[in-house]
Structure prediction request, 225 residues.
Amino acid sequence: MWELVKSGGWMMLPIILCSIAAAGIIAERLWTLRASRIAPPHLLGQVWLWIKEKKLTNDKLKELRANSPLGQVLAAGLANSKHGREIMKECIEEAAARVIHELERYLNALGTIAGVAPLLGLLGTVLGMIDIFSAFMGSNMANAAVLAGGIAKALITTAAGLFVAIPALFFHRFLQRRVDELVVGMEQEAIKLVEVVQGDRDVDMGNGAAPVATAKDTRKEGKKA
Prediction:
């Protein structure tokens, strides 16, 4: 392996650095973008219990913000729920924009590596070919075996660049898709929160218990009585 790296010349150094950076980004994003960490299950039901039991204090909101990105979005809406539906939605959208920015961290860098790595490999090959033909022109002699060996060494950088770019591109698309799915899930939970707090729907507690009645349902039952 070391002989291949040496044969590729100095252009192998930036390609190796790109591979290290890509591997680090992929590992960090796979760990960070876990669904259980971004949007814990039944979080909305837990929040609604706090509201019903009048336990939704500033400390609870801080805890909610600190525990997950979805918690940050829900806490932004809850902190402004008394100002009406539209203000609540606006605050949720602002918090969601910050959260999405964090979820997409390093993905642009990974996409850049996927695009740059094969170009670095191609540049290394071109420089290698220039050196080979320059050497032959200076000696006024051509040897097919030596020429073939030189071309093979020059192509090492192209192969290395593709070796880095292919998995980088795959994981860039994969992680971008995961972010999109997480964002859709958080958007649905945020919509439920707005409708529940404003008294327009029930919330499923997610643990087999019956849905908790909203304020709107309570008013309807009072009228029937």
About this structure: The chain has one domain: 11-210.
